Amino acid sequence: MAEPTTIWAAVAAIATVVGAVGALWTLIELKRDSRDRTRPMMTAELVPAVLTDDADLQINNRGPSPAVNVRVTFDPPLPVLEGADAEGLGTPFLQRRYASPIPTITPGMLMTNYWNSAVDDREPVPNDFTVRFDYADVRGRYYSDTYHLSLTTLRNQSGSYPANTDPAGLEKRRIKALEAIARGVGRP
């Protein structure tokens, strides 16, 4: 039988090892938590456009640090339109904007593009699609964020809206809104 001093020394050694492992695990989790709170966070959403029946795609960096070398991909891919097929459509702008990686998207930077009408299909883009971001932070750590979006969700939005949604009514509302903005510009 071992002496009590030896037994307590062994117990103390085991407790020290367990404590060290716990402290190491805590430090690793704190580092991960700190990295997660300071990382860039790319987002994509479909939002109603102002004063129209259109839906806009908004790309945003909601994190506190820049996202670099941001590659934006769509699934299914955007249709490739050229020449007469591209006339009068917004899809070619989407193609050009997201064809190459974007060098830097700063915190809060908002990129908006017309996606489609929220009422009917005017553009040859999918109604249900996925936006994927592959990018790095300024320290070279890589991230990937994916968002599944549906124009149907936006189209099924309800609320209290003005009744004059015909072209003449919309034009009157635009003029009134611009006049209200103009009156407010320059006021403290």
Low-pLDDT segments, ≥5 res? none
Q: What's the helix count?
A: 4
- How large a portion of the residues is in β-strands, by DSSP E? 25-35%
Amount of helix: 25-40%
Could you say how many structural domains there are in total?
1
Largest sheet: 4 strands, antiparallel
Lateral strand order in the biggest sheet:
4-3-6-7
Tell me the span between the first and last alpha carbons.
87 Å
**Rounded average pLDDT:** 86
> Which structural class matches the secondary elements?
alpha+beta
Radius of gyration from the CA trace?
27 Å
Q: In sequence order, what are the helices and strands, one letter per element?
A: HEEEHEEEEHH
Number of strands: 7
Shape: elongated
List key phrases describing it.
188 residues; alpha+beta; four-stranded antiparallel β-sheet; three-stranded antiparallel β-sheet; elongated; transmembrane
Entry summary:
Helix content is 35%, strand content 29%. With 188 residues, it is an alpha+beta fold.
Fold and architecture overview:
This protein has one domain. It has four helices and seven strands, in the order H-E-E-E-H-E-E-E-E-H-H. The chain has helices at 4-38, 91-98, 151-155, 167-184, and strands at residues 42-48, 54-61, 67-75, 102-105, 110-117, 128-136, 142-150. It has a four-stranded antiparallel sheet with strand order 4-3-6-7. It is 35% helix and 29% strand. The mean pLDDT is 86.
